[in-house]
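hi!! sorry for the late reply, been swamped w classes. u asked for the two structures so here they r. pasted raw, havent cleaned anything up. first the sequence of the first protein and right below it the tokens
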Amino acid sequence: MTVRDRVDAAFAAQPRTRFLPEGARYAADVDAPLQIGYGQTNSQPRTVHDMLMLLDVRRGMRVLDVGAGSGWTTALLAELTGPEGSVLGTEIVPELVEFGAGNVAGAGVPWARLVSAVPRALGAPDEAPFDRILVSAMAHGLPRELVEQLSPGGVMVVPVDGTMLRVVRGVPPVDAVAEAEVTEHGEYRFVPLLGG
């Protein structure tokens, strides 16, 4: 299967509707970000699809989902890793942690979970390293703290100052963080990345 085939299959397995507040479900098929409360959004499906294509998650990988919100991306990532892998979603808004964790628990992917973000930290440093990191919030500058949580050769997709970046951590003996390979993949808008 191609990356696109795998991402399309994940979308088919985890429809967006189930991850939206009841009042927003009527618009689930609209290709636009939708409000999920507390100043946060459920990202535009086309944007999520683009990010997952860039991330290229394979079966059996350990994946971190930063800014998991309603849990939709966490469940999509879990479809891509399969039960041989694991997905950890983190969210900073307490009410959304409860909403998102419930959605993930009901998604039929018990190898995925959504938890509260670690206070004053980005990602999940105590559970690193990860093969892939997805960031669904806008950073100002490349978040080195997250690059450090990647395995050597691991990939992070993160919007930084309006541009989607694909970051590949270097493999020793190079300085894995300083010599990360960064490529740009178009302009996008997101809510701000908090923490760190």
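now the second protein. again sequence first, tokens right under
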Amino acid sequence: MRYAVSAPLGEKLERFVKNGGTLLFTYISAMVNENDLCYLGGFPGAGLRKVFGIWNEEIDTLYPEDSNTVRMNDGKEYRAADYCELIHTEGAEVLARYTEDFYAGMPALTANGYGNGKAYYQAFRDDGAFADMLVSRLLKGCGISGAFDGELPEGVTAHSRTDGENTYVFVQNFSDNEKKIETKSEWVNTETKEKTTENIVVKPLQTLILMQ
């Protein structure tokens, strides 16, 4: 959700997609500029309406106990909660639609080819399952892989940095439970100097700095 987008930033994002980039925006994005002044001419503003190929007409704010269902073109369904935008396509391909309420059948996820790139728009807030699926799919499509072979356990993040010679991976466990990360590569714990090619155990609220 990127509520405020300045005109210069909008131009940069347009060039990014046009030159082959992949861009993902969600509900309540590009509605105002850097001064919190509303864009005229339809949302998303900042010149991004043509990039995403959609027009955001309205937003349905749901009560905490309410929800909607979003169905992908492959039949898989996901839960939508809190915010559901009513968008119309202006050239974008519809990848998922709402199944309930007065806007059943309207687009919930779109993809628009723009120049050499593609812009995706998620029109609703989900419970995390949809975002995990979508981001994983986009990363795979862009040829971006994680530091480890499989998926990370829930509550664990991994961020890599390089100094030009070595690559360091910062593994953080934000949960109160011990987690295990499967790996087939050899890693060195920079603190203990121990090597491992098996499961990496991360204690509750622990941070590990690993090096290959």
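hope this helps!! also noticed smth abt the second:
Residues 129-141 form the longest helix (13 residues).
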